[in-house]
Every structure is written in C-alpha cells, then in structure tokens.
Write a structure and sequence with these properties.
The complex is a heterodimer of chains A (277) and B (126). By secondary structure, chain A is mostly helical. In chain A, 74% of the residues lie in helices and 4% in strands. Chain A has 11 helices and 2 strands, in the order ααααααββααααα. Chain A has a two-stranded antiparallel sheet. In chain A, a hairpin with a 2-residue loop joins strand 1 (141-145) and strand 2 (148-152). Chain A is globular. In chain B, 40% of the residues are buried. The chains are: A mainly alpha (277), B mainly alpha (126). The interface between A and B is large, with 64 and 67 residues.
C-alpha cells in the first residue's frame, strides 16, 4: 500500500472513530489506537502520538461550544489540571521506559473499563455539604437548568485529586483523554453533577494531552505523516457527531459499541501477552 | 467596579471558547496544507510505520520545525500545525492567569501559574 492510499484509509477510519467516539461519549482516542495498531499494523508509539494530537483537537473544538452553555466549572478544572498535567508528564516518561507489550495490556484493561462505564451509569450523588478543601479552594458552583440556576456542593477533593493524577498518567501513557477516569473522580469522589463533570472533564482533556504531547514531540514520537490524517479525520468526525448528537438515540449504539470495544480490548490484551505488539 | 464587571466569569469563558476554536481552525488549516504537499511528494512511497525509528531532530524542536515550515517542507509544515494545536491549550491557560488576576483572585492566579509551569516544562525539557 502506498502512502496516498494509507493516508486516505487512515483519514476515513479516523473520521469514523471521531464520530463514534463523540456519539458514545468514549472519545476518539480509545478507538484510534487499536484501529492503527491492530488493523494497520502501526507501531503503538506512533499510534499513541497521533491519537494524543487528535484528543487535543476534539477537546479544544468541543470546549468552545460547552463553555458558552455555562455548565463547566473553571475553578474545579484548573485546580485538577495540576494533577492531570503532572500525571501526563509521568505517563509520557513511563511510555518511553516500559515495553510496548505492557502498554498494550494496560490499554486493553482501560478500554474494558471505559466500555463498562459507557453502558452502566450509576445514579447521581449530591454532596450534602462543602468539604474542607473545597471550601478553601471555593470549588462550589451552580449551573443552568430549565427551572433556573441550581447550586451544588463539592467534596472529596483529596480522593478526586489523586484519581485525576492517575487519569493524567493513563492519558500520557496511552494517548487517550481518560474521560472515564476523570468522570469517576468528579462524579463519584467529588460528587459533582453529571452535566458539570462531563463538560469540565472535556475542557481539561486538551490541557492534559498538551502536557504529554510536548514530550512526545521532543522525543520524536510524533510523525507528521501519521498524525496528519488522524488529526483531521478525528476532528471532522467529532464535529459531525456533536452536531447530530442532540437528536440521536444513542442508547442502543452505546451498548452495541461497548460490546465491540470489549472484544477489541481483549484482542489488544492477548496480542500484548503474546508479545506481538 | 467597571473592571470586575468586564471580567466576569461568563465573559472570560466566551473569550476562552473563541480562543480555543481559533487555535484549532488555524492548526487544522496548516496541517491540511502540509498534508496536501506531503501526499503530492511522498504519495507513491511505501509508509513504514510497522517499525519504530523515531523522528529526525529537525522535526522535534520548536525552532527547527519553524525553519522547516518556512521553507515549505511538507513534513515540517504539518509539524508546525501540530505545534500550534499543542500551543492552543497552553495559550488558554496563559489567558486564564490574566483573567484571574483581573478578578483579583490571587489563589487561582497561583493555581493557574502552576499548571502553566508544568506545561512549559513539558514543551522545553528533554
């Protein structure tokens, strides 16, 4: 296969990955890395570099729309970005030191977890009162509802901060947005409402990915010929997904897609165990 | 108090949203331009991504990438687009430092400066 065909095929696959990632809420990164490694036989380090770049593009592109709606909490996002960016740098350094087979196995496990959380959505838990760290950092906020502004409390800052560090490590190591772990930190540990946590998480993903992408660039993991069709394809797919999402029935799509993604995850783990990645 | 009204949170969020959008559009345009040149020049060759060899040093640092892009080398141009994309969230954080300072929210000026320092470290360390 010559470069022209390769570029067009990767761009097409990335477009689908961006579209499905945005419709299911999983994000393009968790799809693009298995697509490139399993289907196109790309070395996982190039795949991760290209995926990271596409993650920055979709996060920044979508954040513009979310910010105008007034859901995201800038103080929560900025404070937790200390944890995610430091984690992302740790993850990027880790990626250069551990064998690619281990990266593939960890990727598969995170993929299984992401597929699970996209289907099983536990009920929202509101914090009864503001936690001590949240009070110090003035993290409480409010968001618009049809019945007017609704205020919420934030709690569990130490647990949320620690989980965010892990989300950052995984993002830097695997080239993904780690949306599933970020939502775990904000929904479960810090008791932030869904609308606020998903939009704030999206907002943080770009900054987190930028921290590790800088290291990937300087280490020579970012190949322009590889990243170009991935970035453009995922961005176009994600923008289309965001446009049709409000009217789409995504429940069935999510379930079907989660099963497919789980199969891909197991394949990645097996390839890693056999040392083929 | 005219200044603090000017810098209210919603206004800051709108400006940041537009900043992010502009950065992504500019980056995508540069990457696309480089991509067209790239396919025109290397389209017939065989891609070699199965084996990892790392990028040459002229596609790794800001100054060298800029040089490559100015002389319209396709791979350098794409890399410049990627650099603009990486710089977009960094610019967003830098802007937030100023916005929190204008609101006289010194605690968050410090928080945001820490994030900015971590980002700059990742872009400049080896």
């Amino acid at each position: 296969m010559a470069t022209t065909e390769f570029t067009l095929l990767v761009a097409g696959g990335s477009f689908l990955a961006g579209l499905l990632g945005s419709l299911t809420g999983l994000g393009g990164g968790v799809i693009i890395v298995p697509l490139l490694t399993l289907l196109f036989g790309v070395d996982i380090r190039y795949a991760i570099g290209a995926s990271l770049v596409s993650v920055i593009a979709t996060s920044s592109g979508a954040a513009a729309a979310y910010l105008k709606e007034g859901y995201s909490n800038m103080r929560v996002g900025m404070f937790l970005e200390i944890a995610t960016t430091i984690g992302a740098i740790c993850g990027a350094y880790l990626a250069t030191r551990i064998p690619t087979a281990a990266i593939a196995i960890i990727f598969g496990l995170v993929l299984l977890y992401s597929a699970w959380t996209s289907v099983a959505q536990p009920p929202e838990l509101a914090a009864p009162d503001t936690g001590p760290f949240a009070r110090l950092l003035r993290l409480d906020g409010h968001y618009p509802t049809p019945e007017g502004e609704r205020a919420y409390h934030v709690t569990g800052v130490p647990a949320g901060f620690s989980l965010m560090w892990i989300a950052g490590v995984l993002s830097g190591l695997l080239g993904i947005g780690s949306g599933a772990v970020k939502v775990l930190a904000m929904d479960r540990a810090m008791r932030i409402p869904f609308k606020v946590s998903t939009t704030t998480s999206n907002f943080m993903i770009g900054v987190t990915a930028a921290a590790s992408a800088g290291i990937y660039l300087r280490r020579g993991y970012l190949d322009p010929g590889m990243a170009m069709p991935v970035m453009l394809g995922v961005l176009a797919g994600a923008l289309l997904g965001a446009r049709i999402l409000p009217g789409a029935k995504v429940r069935t799509l999510r379930i079907v897609f989660s099963i497919a993604i789980s199969a891909v995850a197991i394949e990645m783990i097996l390839q890693g165990v056999r040392g083929k990645i | 108090m005219a200044q603090s009204q000017f810098w209210n949170d919603q206004r800051v969020e709108n400006i940041i949203g537009n900043l992010l959008r502009a950065g992504v559009i500019l980056a995508a345009a540069v990457v696309l331009a480089g991509g067209v040149l790239y396919v025109a020049k290397y389209g017939h060759q065989q891609p070699q991504y199965g084996v990892f060899h790392g990028e040459p040093s002229d596609l790794r640092s800001v100054s060298q990438i800029t040089q490559q892009a100015i002389s319209l080398h396709s791979r350098g141009l794409i890399q410049l687009g990627l650099l603009i994309l990486i710089a977009t969230p960094v610019a967003r954080v830098a802007f937030s430092v100023m916005a929190f300072a204008a609101e006289r929210d010194w605690l968050y000026v410090v928080v945001t400066l820490i994030v900015l320092a971590v980002l700059l470290y990742s872009l400049t360390s080896t």
